[in-house]
């Protein structure tokens, strides 16, 4: 299951990177996200998210139950036996990965929303500009349209500012993914060590 969670995180991180930079693949990703938000797509996404959240809650509860049994030492409660320490490390890693999957899913949804909103505003501005060029208007109407254009420009600047904030958050998320990957590698090594110790204790028994 851990390998599956890693695959999902890498896929979500790749999707965020494609949304951040204007490339031909970005259009394909946006088109795919548009289709996912149509028909039964939202129901499927909500169902999967709810399932992950339930499993995450179960893992967090298990970790909390282990931590209540004693003081925490080197990442796990000190008075647990080797088997319980292995289970503690496994549940902690799974909870971290599932929480990050939900966070990256939210980031993808927000980035997709802001990109579509920015495109819609630009298209509206272009259509307003074409109408102004084609149709002759009086001074008052020209002034009113200039005010409308200024309003659209302010809205675009605001949306672009929000998009830049989201891009910064996505960059921070990527750094967090790398840190989490290193942490998981350490936990996996600890997991293998505890398994070996557990097997050795069973052999002695």
UniProtKB/TrEMBL annotation:
Location (main, coarse): endoplasmic reticulum
Domain of life: Eukaryota
GO cellular component: endoplasmic reticulum membrane
Membrane-crossing residue ranges in chain numbering: 6-22, 43-64, 95-115
Compartments in which it is found: Endoplasmic reticulum membrane
Keyword annotations from UniProtKB, A to Z: Apoptosis, Coiled coil, Endoplasmic reticulum, ER-Golgi transport, Membrane, Protein transport, Transmembrane, Transmembrane helix, Transport
Protein's GO biological process: endoplasmic reticulum to Golgi vesicle-mediated transport; intracellular protein transport; protein localization to endoplasmic reticulum exit site
Coiled-coil boundaries: 177-204
Membrane topology: Multi-pass membrane protein
Gene3D superfamilies (alphabetical): 1.20.5.110
Family listed: Belongs to the BCAP29/BCAP31 family.
Annotated function: May play a role in anterograde transport of membrane proteins from the endoplasmic reticulum to the Golgi.
Name of this protein: Endoplasmic reticulum transmembrane protein
């Amino acid at each position: 299951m851990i390998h599956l969670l890693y695959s999902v995180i890498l896929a979500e991180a790749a999707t965020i990177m494609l949304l951040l930079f204007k490339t031909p693949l970005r259009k394909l990703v946006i088109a795919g996200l548009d289709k996912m938000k149509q028909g039964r797509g939202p129901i499927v996404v909500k169902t999967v998210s709810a399932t992950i959240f339930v499993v995450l809650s179960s893992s967090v509860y298990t970790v909390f139950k282990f931590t209540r049994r004693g003081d925490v030492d080197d990442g796990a409660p000190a008075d647990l036996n080797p088997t319980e320490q292995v289970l503690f490390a496994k549940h902690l890693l799974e909870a971290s990965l599932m929480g990050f999957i939900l966070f990256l899913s939210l980031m993808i949804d927000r980035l997709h929303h802001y990109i579509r909103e920015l495109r819609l505003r630009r298209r509206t501005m272009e259509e307003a500009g074409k109408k102004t060029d084609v149709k002759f208007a009086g001074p008052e109407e020209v002034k009113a349209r200039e005010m409308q254009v200024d309003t659209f420009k302010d809205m675009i600047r605001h949306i672009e500012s929000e998009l830049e904030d989201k891009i910064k958050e996505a960059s921070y998320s990527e750094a967090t993914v790398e840190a989490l990957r290193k942490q998981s590698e350490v936990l996996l090594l600890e997991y293998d060590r505890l398994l070996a110790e557990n097997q050795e204790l069973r052999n002695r028994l």
